């Protein structure tokens, strides 16, 4: 912690927080929500990579931690920063990771990474949760799949010319959702019991990854929202957990397969360009 009376000259006082899993933390952001202090930070080592949070109370200049975790459980979410001006806490982050930045297929084009969609942070049951901001619904420009109730498994052809759409899928119990094309490029999202798995290994010209996450909170109905863009997939489960991945498909993911068990509700929308 540093203190200043003129915002020019600063005096060091003490260490607010230490993260033992990594020698170096960066991009700190401190916000107060529901009378809790939340420190958001990023850490980068070969073993630890991503945006994290520590939730608790600052006492005598030290953050006394009550709960901690990742802000996003995918592999491409870093340097998250919050914004004020409303009664919500909105966060935006760099969507890329340092381990792949030097080998990214976009390096030769002079850019590296992208900004993730804005998200709202909130606290429930003393856990920091995340959901897409409601304003994203204004980008919906047409229905690819009109909301409908389904049973068992099935598939849809998505009449899209580019990867710019949203999928909303509600299922009683577990599910399997796959977005793919006829050129063997795919992204698959599976929830089996408490285990959530996202597989982007066959997503395009850059080899992806497989991410597994244990979900502590089980529900009778699970709600999955997936935002597909030209080189990214952003996944939100139950307005609670987020996973972000860079993907580099040669072709459009224009096929959808699902297996939702007894009852599921599916809808999909094309998305307008965000630069209005």
SSE order and pairing:
Layout: E1 2-3, E2 11-12, E3 25-33, E4 36-44, E5 49-59, E6 62-70, E7 78-83, E8 89-95, H1 98-101, E9 114-115, E10 119-124, E11 127-132, E12 140-150, E13 153-157, E14 165-172, E15 175-180, E16 186-192, E17 195-199, E18 210-214, E19 221-229, E20 232-237, E21 241-246, E22 255-259, E23 264-271
Strand content: over 45%
CATH architectural name of the largest domain:
Sandwich
The proportion of residues forming helix, as a percent range, comes to under 10%
Q: Number of helical runs?
A: 1
The CATH topology of the largest domain: Jelly Rolls
Q: Terminal Cα separation, in Å? A: 40 Å
> Helices and strands: which structural class?
mainly beta
Describe the global form: globular
Element pattern in H and E? EEEEEEEEHEEEEEEEEEEEEEEE
Oligomer: single chain
Q: What is the CATH superfamily classification of the largest domain?
A: Exo-inulinase, domain 1
Rg, alpha carbons: 20 Å
Biggest sheet details:
6 strands, antiparallel
Q: Could you list the spans in which at least 5 consecutive residues all have pLDDT below 50? A: none
What is the level 1 CATH name of the largest domain? Answer: Mainly Beta
What is the mean pLDDT? 92
Verbal overview:
- The chain is mainly beta and 276 residues long.
- The protein has 2 domains: 23-132, Glycosyl hydrolase domain, family 43 (Tachylectin-2, Chain A, 5 Propeller), CATH 2.115.10.20; 141-271, Jelly Rolls.
- 1% of the residues lie in helices and 54% in strands.
- It is built from 1 helix and 23 strands.
- The protein has one helix at 98-101, and strands spanning 2-3, 11-12, 25-33, 36-44, 49-59, 62-70, 78-83, 89-95, 114-115, 119-124, 127-132, 140-150, 153-157, 165-172, 175-180, 186-192, 195-199, 210-214, 221-229, 232-237, 241-246, 255-259, 264-271.
- The strands form 5 sheets. The chain has a 6-stranded antiparallel β-sheet with strand order 12-23-14-19-20-21, with no helix packed on it. A 6-stranded antiparallel β-sheet has the order 13-22-15-16-17-18, with no helix packed on it.
- A hairpin with a 2-residue loop joins strand 10 and strand 11 (127-132).
- The radius of gyration is 20 Å and the shape is globular.
- The termini are far apart.
């Amino acid at each position: 912690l540093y203190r200043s009376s003129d915002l020019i000259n600063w005096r060091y006082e003490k260490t607010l927080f230490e993260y033992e899993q990594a020698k170096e933390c960066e991009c700190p952001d401190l916000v107060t929500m529901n009378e809790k202090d939340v420190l958001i930070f990023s850490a980068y080592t070969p073993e630890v990579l991503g945006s994290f949070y520590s939730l608790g109370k600052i006492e005598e200049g030290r953050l006394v931690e009550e709960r901690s975790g990742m802000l996003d459980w995918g592999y491409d979410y870093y340097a998250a920063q919050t914004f004020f001006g409303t009664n919500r806490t909105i966060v935006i982050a760099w969507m890329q990771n340092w381990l792949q930045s030097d080998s990214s297929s976009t390096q030769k084009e002079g850019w590296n990474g992208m900004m993730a969609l804005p998200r709202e942070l909130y606290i429930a049951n003393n856990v920091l949760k995340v959901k897409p901001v409601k304003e994203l619904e204004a980008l919906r420009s047409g229905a690819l799949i009109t909301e409908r109730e389904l049973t068992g498994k099935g598939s849809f052809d998505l009449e899209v010319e580019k990867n710019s759409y949203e999928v909303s899928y509600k299922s009683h119990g577990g599910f399997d959702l796959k977005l793919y094309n006829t050129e063997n490029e795919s992204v698959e999202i599976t929830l089996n019991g408490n285990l959530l798995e996202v597989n982007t290994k066959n997503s395009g010209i850059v080899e992806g990854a497989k991410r597994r996450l244990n979900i502590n909170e089980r529900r009778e109905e699970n709600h999955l929202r997936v935002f597909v863009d030209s080189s990214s997939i952003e996944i939100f489960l139950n307005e609670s957990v987020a996973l972000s991945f860079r993907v580099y498909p040669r072709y459009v993911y224009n096929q959808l397969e699902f297996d939702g068990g007894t009852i599921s509700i599916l809808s999909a929308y094309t998305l307008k360009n965000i630069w209005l």
